[in-house]
Amino acid sequence: MTQRRLGNPHSPRKPKYDFPPLICGALSHQAACSKRHSARTSESTALSKPPTISVIDDDGSVRAATYNLVRSFGYVVHTFASAGEFLRSPYLNETSCVIADVRMPAMSGLELQAYLLAEGYRVPFIFITAFSAENVRTEALKAGASCFLTKPFTGEALSGCLDAALRERDEERSK
Known about the structure:
Layout lengths: L19 H24 L8 E5 L3 H13 L3 E5 L2 H5 L7 E7 L7 H10 L6 E5 L4 H9 L4 E4 L4 H19 L2
Parallel strand pairs: 1-2, 1-3, 3-4, 4-5
């Protein structure tokens, strides 16, 4: 059985990664993050809940690893296989931060960010990619991305990006 590739047939194939080390690293990183998680949850009132993070990646193994990692930080996490699936979801308005793959079929992460901005949604974006092209990184950051990570990334790097993105969001809201 052959697999049919979607998207641009001339684009390079996404490299496959062995993500168990990422997950294992995330689980050991979880212990280091437990104090930060306790601080986050103790700051919340009984009526509030932790920020909601939406993870959008067409690679199921990356989605699962990122879900487990972000959830270990104490966030509410929803995952989506495509930008379209995210846009059709009931979680669009409650999303506090988006973690999106740069290259996806149909609508890229950069196109999703531009679409949401054009529609008036102001949500921080963290881009992840298997391709470290400096021009794409520059484009993403110019468009307002909070962070740009190359796969595989460490739990510490993603945690730092989430902290910065949510801090930016809170500062923007208080203006």
